Amino acid sequence: MLSPEGDGTPLVAAPGVTAHARRLTLSALESWGLGGHGEVAEQLVAELVANAVRHTGGRTFVLRLLRGSGRIRVELRDPSRALPCLIKGDPEDEAGRGLCLVDELADRWGVDVLSRGKSVWFELKVRIAA
After folding, report:
1. How far apart are CA 130 and CA 127, in angstroms?
2. What structural domains does the chain harbor?
3. How does DSSP assign 78-118, residue by residue?
4. Threshold 0.85, pTM exceeds
5. Phi/psi of residue 128, each to 5°?
6. SS3 125
7. Counting C-beta atoms within 10 Å of the first and last residue's C-beta, which end of the chain has fewer, N or C?
8. What is d(CA 72, CA 96) in angstroms, rounded to the nearest whole number?
């Protein structure tokens, strides 16, 4: 069972939104005693936010963090119902690797279609300190 960190945090597509989402993610992980997982979680949330800003046309998003037995889940909700595509790009490409990175580093990831938009999410296995 996953426990949410509230209903989520609204984000506005503006300069600095990716850094803000990273800080929110790290802060939540540290408050849960899971700061050691922050680097990967920060990188992946940055990819989700960058994709949402670039591809959805939305101006607002909601970042939601959840924790459960041995895992965390990070969700980014956006107003678009268009599904993201996992595209294996050329190694020379300067962009387009966001979901490939999520696919490689997350233990699980996916997309849930909502009544208004979608939620792109990833999960990481975590070790709870004894």
Report:
1. 9
2. 3-125 (3.30.565.10)
3. ES--PPP------TT-SS--HHHHHHHH-SEEEEEEETTEE
4. yes
5. -85, 125
6. strand
7. C
8. 25
